[in-house]
Write a structure and sequence with these properties.
The chain is mostly helical. It has seven helices and no strands. Helix 2 crosses helix 3 and helix 5 crosses helix 6.
Length: 197
């Protein structure tokens, strides 16, 4: 059972990495407002920290600048996005292990109905992953020939009707969240009908 044996260790490593990242960006936020003496030890540390975290914070600062919000708050936006990525990333890993475990159980026990249910659940999970990738890709420029272009092409038939109903906020496609909730509901139904019945 990967869900019980391997996932806790992955979760511990990823959560620890996020907490370290959280601490560093909170320090950067404090330095943004305190503006320490650049010639002292704290000032030099602040400069190094800013230099090393700029690649993560810069997209958020650019986003805030578009709305004329203080760009010194960019570490908070970056932390929000990193937290969401950590949460969804761990969810994807857990879901993958769950699918492998349940599919193995169904095959070993010869339960065809459960195997069909898990395959349907897995297809919906891949679609969820594609929508998540599409949501994140709003930060990047891509062409139709790339993998992100393929993801867009696959998810367009579902996403376009929802995008017409729910407008984007800045560069964030809120309709993606609605579709993810609906697919999560559909996955629950599939599990109850095919696997747990």
């Amino acid at each position: 059972m990967l869900t019980k044996s391997v996932y806790p260790y992955i979760s511990l490593v990823v959560t620890s990495a996020f907490l370290i990242f959280f601490a560093l960006l909170m320090l950067r936020l404090i330095f943004n407002y305190s503006d320490p003496n650049p010639f002292g030890k704290i000032g030099r540390f602040s400069f190094e920290l800013k230099k090393r975290t700029d690649k993560f914070v810069y997209p958020a600062a650019r986003f805030l600048a578009n709305f004329r919000v203080d760009t010194r708050l960019a570490p908070l936006v970056t932390l929000f996005i990193a937290g969401a990525l950590t949460y969804f990333g761990l969810g994807i890993v857990h879901n993958t292990f769950f699918i492998i475990d349940e599919l193995s159980k169904g095959i070993i026990s010869g339960n065809i109905k459960a195997v069909i249910g898990i395959i349907l659940y897995a297809i919906l999970s891949v679609f969820v992953l594609f929508i998540f990738i599409r949501f994140i890709s709003a930060w990047f420029v891509f062409t139709r020939s790339t993998f992100l272009g393929f993801v867009k092409k696959v998810t367009d038939p579902v996403m376009i009707p929802f995008q017409r109903l729910i407008p984007t906020i800045g560069m964030f496609d809120i309709s993606a969240m609605v579709v993810l909730i609906l697919i999560g509901f559909l996955q629950t139904i599939v599990l109850r009908v095919f696997v747990y019945s």
